[in-house]
Amino acid sequence: LAQPCRCVLAVLVHADRATLDVIRARPGVRAVHAAPSRTAARDVALSPLLPEQQIAVTATPDDGPVSGG
C-alpha cells in the first residue's frame, strides 16, 4: 500500500448466502466474491481491491500458477 493504513485486504469466509449478504452490506466492505461450496482454500484466487480503485474495478489477470491437486 502506498501509505500506512489499518486495512484488511482479504478474508476467506465459509458461510451461506444470507450471511455473505449481511457481510456485503456492512460499511467498509467493498466486495464479496462467492465460490461454490466445498471449494478448497488453495483453489480460490483472491484479487484484493486497492485503495485507489474507488470508481470502477476491472478484473485482474487470472494467469497465476494452478495447483496440481
Q: How would you characterize this protein structure?
A:
This protein is low in regular secondary structure and 69 residues long. The chain has one domain. 13% of the residues lie in helices and 0% in strands. The protein has one helix and no strands. The protein has one helix at residues 17-25. The radius of gyration is 14 Å and the shape is globular. The model has no long low-confidence stretch (mean pLDDT 77).
Write the layout of secondary structure elements.
Blueprint: H1 17-25
Separation of termini?
A: 32 Å
Oligomeric nature of the chains: single chain
Largest sheet: none
Number of strands: 0
Q: Domains counted in the coordinates: how many?
A: 1
Would you kindly provide a brief summary of this structure?
With 69 residues, the chain is largely without helices or strands. The chain has one helix and no strands.
Notable characteristics:
69 residues, globular, 13% helix
